């Protein structure tokens, strides 16, 4: 059992990693199987390509290489980790959680493995949980994963085209560690508004029905993600800036102090509108949705790992992570790197 430590104060990101499956799917590939076009997809979402997992490649399979890279970059091993937090809305199975599968597959000690289901906001919610455990001295190193294998659930017919052109598969991981230095996670801010649950949801399987999924559900496509695109857009362009400003105000900072904003990669048009509302330089908001599409809980840790490898984040920089998604949920975190 991990002993409580009273001398630990801050939680910082000591390592990151990401992995995307090999198969690249272009907009033209989608246009060959449904009524869409490269022009429509790029104009509405900015997406050029996304990755799709291979048959038999599930969420945990994608997470493992990302975790290996994160551990390596933190110079830690599986034995150093005190808790696994696994954010996903596409777990390998309905139960148990993917965190347990990963614990076994990678040979972690018999530590806690906690799946969280907060969709696109999952990584920032997970960061908030990790921050509390570290600040209070309970744990020293926490593994936080955001991973999704969404492609097997997408409706690639004309009927599902409004949703399926947006999403892709991938995984990102971060190690959250304790430090007594003056840096790390400064604050996190979590929100939800469940009255909009049905604007972005998967209705079946549902415990309100017995059996939880029926042939009629499958025929009606109730097991597919459904999105009210206009409502999502309207709320996202308000909640992203709100959550960023909330994080700045909580730390007496302003936009000029921020080196990089890493948003959930929902849609390039949403990010551009958020950038316009906030002001600041063009490259303040990080984007890699062009390559990977929307990878839900994986998008922030993938973007963070790429931004670090590109030299976009240096020691001492202030960075904001911000998310919005199904629930609706939204959240932000301000980090001094
Ligand atoms: N290819 C071609 N045409 C399409 C496609 C497609 N993939 N999908 C829908 N269409 C058609 C519709 O059938 C409709 O056709 P119609 O006018 O003949 O009926 C037309 O395109 C609608 O296009 P728009 O006029 O652009 O519709 P709207 O203004 O409602 O915009 C959109 C739709 C692009 C989805 C917009 O609502 C949007 O960008 N929403 C944000 C959704 C989003 O990005 N979600 C991210 C995932 S959720 C998250 O991460 C938080």
Description:
It is a single chain. This protein has eleven helices and 13 strands. The protein has 337 residues and is of the alpha/beta class. The chain folds into two domains: 10-182, Thiolase/Chalcone synthase (Peroxisomal Thiolase, Chain A, domain 1), CATH 3.40.47.10; 185-336, Peroxisomal Thiolase, Chain A, domain 1 (3-Layer(aba) Sandwich), CATH 3.40.47.10. A five-stranded mixed sheet has the order 1-7-6-4-5, sandwiched between helices. A four-stranded mixed sheet has the order 8-13-12-11, sandwiched between helices. It is globular and about 55 Å long. Bound molecules: acetyl coenzyme *A.
CATH class of the largest domain: Alpha Beta
| First-last Cα distance | 30 Å
Give the total of domains: 2
The ordered string of helix (H) and strand (E) elements is EEHHEHEHEHEHEEEHEHEHHHEE
Question: Which sequence of strands runs across the widest sheet?
Answer: 1-7-6-4-5
- Biggest β-sheet: count, sense, barrel? 5 strands, mixed
- CATH names the topology of the largest domain as Peroxisomal Thiolase, Chain A, domain 1
Strand content: 15-25%
**Radius of gyration computed on alpha carbons:** 19 Å
Per DSSP, the total helix count is 11
Assembly state (oligomeric):
single chain
Set down the secondary structure blueprint.
Layout: E1 10-19, E2 23-26, H1 27-31, H2 38-45, E3 49-52, H3 59-73, E4 83-87, H4 98-106, E5 112-116, H5 122-135, E6 141-148, H6 161-164, E7 170-179, E8 184-192, E9 200-201, H7 215-220, E10 226-227, H8 229-250, E11 258-263, H9 268-278, H10 289-292, H11 299-309, E12 318-325, E13 329-336
Parallel strand pairs: 4-5, 4-6, 11-12
Antiparallel strand pairs: 1-7, 2-3, 6-7, 8-13, 9-10, 12-13
Helix pairs in contact: 3-4, 8-9
